[in-house]
Amino acid sequence: MKYKYSKYVPNLLDELDMDELMSKLSDLLMSSGFGNPRDTDDDSDRTMQALHDAILEALFNGGVLPDDLLETLFGDAAEGNEQEARNQLDALIQQIIERMKESGFITTPPDLEPEKARRAMGGGTAEENGEPGEVKFAVTDKALDFLGYRALRDLLGSAGHSSAGRHDTRDLSTGIETSGAPKPYEFGDVMNIDATATILNAVSRQSGSKASGPPGIDIDYSDVMVAQGEYQSSCATVLMLDCSHSMILYGEDRFTPAKRVAMALSHLIRTQYPGDTIHAVLFHDSAEEVPLRELGRVRVGPYYTNTREGLRVARRILERQRKDMRQIVMITDGKPSALTQPDGRIYKNPFGLDPIVIGETLAEVSACAKAGIMINTFMLARDYDLVAFVRRVAAMCRGKAYFTTPYTLGQYVLMDYMDKKSKTVH
């Protein structure tokens, strides 16, 4: 049997780390409207051209391709043939897009508008008639779940933690795992008997007695000691995300990092704390709960900040949860500036701290405190009046106030969830 050998032609995709590329594209895939702050419904960042440009940027400046490969392919304009190098680069990007589709990270539903235009004009494609059609792509649930995992790994890695267990509290229980000092047995305790401490009690009691008796150790009820283990609690969390327009204004995108943290926290709870629950609430002119799988797709909404309505929706969710701990994690960058009135109308005042809005918001904070719900606020702004308001909220509900930036938000949220909140349960 004869074999025909051909020259091996390396595939550039073999040198490409698709996971790293997806991480570099996370800002595009989870875009929040920062590219066009005046029109947050604009989907121009969901076009294939936007994806093409983002991949090009990642290849050259994101460190996705090795430097030696970049030098071989595009160094000195590929030995003088610039057009061939450009064609080779376009072919590579097209292969990457096809690989992303095959891997289930993006989908490209058929766009019928160019075909409708061609038929209406009596022939010729939209491109041939000078009207290039913009084909949109959609981000899949698989891609968002992967981005949540990568965000969690990166955030915990930068904080020096690689894994997490269950929530430890200061309360002790008589469970199987022994980690505390033994205690005298009481009715209702788990019979996790500490044999050493029990026998020592019996020996000590009998050695102090002068009465002679049969040989052996007589264990009395008062001698029995049980081992204590750490009481590990469950937690219900509502993550409140401010999606008012200020989150993408002033030259900084604050909403995309907030979404990334929300996805990382959701992934952490699903994988490391299966007994816990997490819900997401968006607040702007009003407030509503959104499914966790839609977190990566949400965009900034109307202009105002209805903090009271967000807290009310979160409280109603948590009051249905039967957990040892119930908490609200609120991420915001602005002062409360809107209020839902009893008749459903929205009262708005963006100038200063409106006493009506602040009073109603603090009344809702008090209702959360009475329900045993703790509020931890992560503030992305440093206004003097706003700082005082946030600290008052933290004092009313025994929560914490963190003043951070979009770059350190993730470490603060995750470390607070794992290490701080569980120590307040009694």
Could you list some keywords that capture this structure?
426 residues, alpha/beta, Rossmann fold, 3 domains, six-stranded mixed β-sheet, three-stranded antiparallel β-sheet, 16% strand, disordered C terminus
In short:
This protein has 426 residues and is an alpha/beta fold. It has 14 helices and 13 strands.
Structural features, described:
The chain is an alpha/beta fold and 426 residues long. It has three domains: 12-139, no CATH class; 145-167 and 234-424, 3-Layer(aba) Sandwich (Rossmann fold), CATH 3.40.50.410; 174-207 and 217-232, no CATH class. Helix content is 40%, strand content 16%. A six-stranded mixed sheet has the order 8-7-6-9-12-13, sandwiched between helices. A three-stranded antiparallel sheet has the order 3-5-4. Helix 3 (48-61) packs across helix 6 (82-102), helix 10 packs parallel to helix 14 (409-420) and helix 11 packs parallel to helix 12. The model is unreliable at 124-133, 160-178 and 420-426 (pLDDT under 50).
CATH structural fold name of the largest domain: Rossmann fold
How many domain units?
Answer: 3
Mean pLDDT: 76
Kindly report how far apart the N and C termini lie: 79 Å
- Please report the total strand number as a whole number: 13
Largest sheet: 6 strands, mixed
Strand order of the largest sheet: 8-7-6-9-12-13
CATH-assigned homologous superfamily of the largest domain: von Willebrand factor, type A domain
CATH class label of the largest domain: Alpha Beta
Rg over CA atoms, rounded to whole Å, is 30 Å
